[in-house]
Fold each of these.
Amino acid sequence: MNEKRWRKRAAGLLALLLVLLLSGCWEGAGGGGSAKPVIYLYPQEEEQVTVALAYDGTLTSVYPALQDGGWTVTARPDGTLIDGDGREYYCLFWEGTCRWDYDFSRGFCVAGEDTAVFLEEALAALGLTDREADEFIIYWLPRMEGNAYNLIAFQEADYTDHARLTVSPQPDTMLRVFMAWKALPEPVEIPAQTLTAPAREGFTLVEWGGAEVS
């Protein structure tokens, strides 16, 4: 390979690596980037809430900015969040890269063209409202529907043990929905997950996020 072609290929590889890092989908040894978790807060009455995040990875983007490792906002029952400067938000956002393994021992193999319908049904079973599910689907569907198949597994301790939330006051209900998925050229057999959710009672925290795994 001549020097000019080698430099061109090296530049292309570097650009690809940069895109992967910025998109939160860099894959480490057996792991993947935790892309776009968002957190909603629904107290029963307006009150100040502090949310602290302890993440076993590298944070790449956070909004609004963390103060002393967390967020402190005034939360309203409709989900509106207000910071100390009076700016309104509808959620707390963070993104990071990680290198731990996700659990694909159970899950679903879904044709790309069926992904939207599958996610509507799965997210309802996991306790998300239509609005929350819409935001989840709008973010992930463009990356998934063009694939032949998607292997999907909703994570539990394999996610929450590595992205720990400390909330004050403590929510009565916490719904943390995190989807790990892989694009596949052919379908595979996998034992199906049972998807359930606790009743949304009292002060409720909802989080959704996901990671594309190679």
Amino acid sequence: MGDRYAQVSYEALLQMRKQLKGIFGPCNERLMLKAMRLYGSFAMLNVRFSNEKILKLGMPKPPRFTDYIGRCVQSTRGLSIPQQMAVDFK
């Protein structure tokens, strides 16, 4: 992880609210806090998805993330985080 990575509480994120535009670029601070709270709550569940059942049903094995990360970067180039979030938080 990067040198500046730190796990913080949601309360700490609330205190950083005015810094979010400097971190993420132009954004709706309330919406970014909502997204971080939702993601953080999900991450704290410590749940892992298993492909076992769908593989047994005949689905092909999914590609490794490193195989398609370039496409992720290419397809979002030039889009702000709020633009990328438009579908998730209407």
Amino acid sequence: MRWLAEVNVRLRPGIADPEGQTIAGGLRALGFEVADVRAGKLLRVTFEAVDRERAESAVAQMCSRLLANPVMETADWELSADEPAAVGIES
């Protein structure tokens, strides 16, 4: 079965975020009153696994081994069955 994981990786609280500071400065320069900006990343990973339990385990391993640095970042995800788009001619 094919799965889609949307993985959100964020810096842990207390870790400096120069990208977020730069974005906040840009927003302020444009006239937006923002208190703080924290940057992160969203990763969409499509992969095969026989069931939800194995898919969850696979995503957890992906995060701990490559997608997030556990010292500086946290990762959470949403997992769903990935339905391929129907290809055909509409009538």
Amino acid sequence: MGEELKVEYTSTVFYVKFGDGSKAFLRYSIEGDKMALIETYTPPQHRGKGVAKLMVDKAVEVAQGRGLKIVPICSYSVQYFLKNPDKRGLLAEPYASMKEEDMKKYFEERLAAEKAKEKG
């Protein structure tokens, strides 16, 4: 592959454009002092290459720079904070103070909700 991936963003989405014309994205919204990470999508041919992580990394960087707390809604963003416990201080409550098992349960709930939405 060897593509240099660059995360760009607008007021509602972080995205990566690929050489094949496809795009990965992370939809978000900002309300008050919170950034909600709503939906992550990576085209099937680009999955498993760390693209979603790059986008959430960028979201975290932007949120930190603006003094925002993060509300993880999409399952990938929840998984990101499970894998990076050192960054949980950036989360809004109640997520910041969730125990590991509660965070895992929340991840499973978000994943189930997304799968139900795909079927519906």
